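Reviewers asked in the last cycle whether our approach scales beyond single polypeptides. To address this, we selected a multi-component target totalling 229 residues and predicted its structure end to end. The input consisted of the following lines:
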Amino acid sequence: DARVTQTPRHKVTEMGQEVTMRCQPILGHNTVFWYRQTMMQGLELLAYFRNRAPLDDSGMPKDRFSAEMPDATLATLKIQPSEPRDSAVYFCASGVAAGFGYEQYFGPGTRLTVT
Amino acid sequence: SQQGEEDPQALSIQEGENATMNCSYKTSINNLQWYRQNSGRGLVHLILIRSNEREKHSGRLRVTLDTSKKSSSLLITASRAADTASYFCATDGGFSGGYNKLIFGAGTRLAVHP
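The resulting structure, written as structure tokens, was:
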């Protein structure tokens, strides 16, 4: 049963600390998405990768967030320095083309709390 | 900005009843997708309906799409307590900037009571 995995599942950190979230997409999927979910903003797209290349990171605060995909089995989202407003659930999703578009398969999320 | 807007925001029904959720959007789409999210979990893809389709079924799910009204509905028939979750519509505006971007609505929270 192929699924997207994310680590850690929960992270509590202090303001100013670096946070790294990891995602393993489903084998064979060539698209990876990072989302952030909060009660106020809902689900927001932060970054998109295709074949490991970042195609869109316009939703990501550039000064503190960075997303990379060092190989086909690992995507990372880093926040440095973290701030309380970054507290949210961060989801990774990988996709496979489905006709006109992509069905996306979501990981379980990383619940980040910045104090 | 959110493209899809779900209605109602919350829905409470008894087991066995049907649940209908609606989604409206503003711009033209390539396809529209529905996802379910159980509390504390990731989203699960339910169904994708293309812009040239009007209706699609999957088990107890029925999705309709009216592109002239820019709206879609998700019907869950004979609901079960296990259907309790948030349901999101997501619009795919087509290939732009190198990929198909999904924009999610705020979701409908469905509670099915035994």
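The interface with chain B takes residues 4, 31, 33, 42-43, 45, 48, 50, 55-56, 91, 93, 98-109 of chain A (CB under 8 Å). We regard this as preliminary and will revisit it once experimental data from Aim 1 are available.
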